Amino acid sequence: MKYFSLTNGSVITGGEILQKKSVIVKDDKIVDIVDQSSLPNDIEQIDLGGNYLAPGFIDVQVNGAGGAFFGGAPTADGLGIMEKALLKEGTTGFLVTAATNTFDVYKQMTQYAHNHRKEALGNYLGLHLEGPYINPRSKGAHPIGLIKKATLDEVKTLVELGHGEIRVMTMAPELQPEEIIQYLDRQGIVISIGHSAATYDEAMHFLTGRKRMATHLYNGMLPMHHRYPGLIPAIFRARPFTGIVVDGIHVSYPMVRLAKQVLGDSLMLVTDAVTACKTGAYQHTLRNDHYVTVGADGKETISGSALSMLKAVQNCVEHVDISLAEAVNMASLYPAQSIGLANRIGQIKKGFDADFIVFNSNFQVSKVCLKGTFMC
Hints:
By secondary structure, this protein is an alpha/beta fold.
């Protein structure tokens, strides 16, 4: 039985930074948060050395890590490689994201993910299919030849092949039959609007009154126009949980600041991270601090980030004037809420999973704990 306390650190949770508190862990759960002076005499104490203790980060949009591009070129061992690499960065929960691809790649990905479930470390939470049912007008780096309109039979086949692994699907709802939307709602799969050219009215119809998400704000969306407002103002009004890539490249920091002012606790951090790949539909090439695809004409299109969740938190604090406690919420609590898991992860709270990241004032990872076990 594991029974220990984490002490001598600043505990970040629920939008606050708690001082002189200790977190008590038993097996894989948090059992209490107490004053450091009130610890039982017989408990093992792990000294955090004055560093920050935060809930493990949750990334609902990540394509690859550790050299494994599972979201585009899946392999039997790729998901395990991603789990280990992301744990080292403090990500204790993530959705593997697959952008628009062939049906065979989706089938292979879902089968590998289902098979991996029995041996998973515990930070893999499911799949996020980002396509292929998107709008060609807002395709970004998605191959236009693979974009399609959904049919109910095909979507049902994908869901059934997923064996419950699919948690989120990004699509352009303005192009999809209403029966598709209704079917996914019944299956409990969160539909995220993204790579969409929806009008304001179309977007509001989709976003109003139902559990929804929006994929990487500003990217894959038509810009705002004072006569043709479109998707972005609809997101600002309806305030679904909305991912944003805070690397200063996908979105400039002033635009992150605007989004935070409007969306508040609906804005969450995602990395949209990829890794280098020379095969398949997405041949990602690293360009300093982000990835691109290179077209036949030599034109480069931004295709993914080289971001970690901790770096995104740091960027929020240093470039967007968001408090550290709130930036941590954006990387943990809000993503957990977006996929319906906020009853057990996303906070340091009694009864929650013992998932933590320990980092210093320079935003360097010191320790990572997954379900009561220190992984690094």
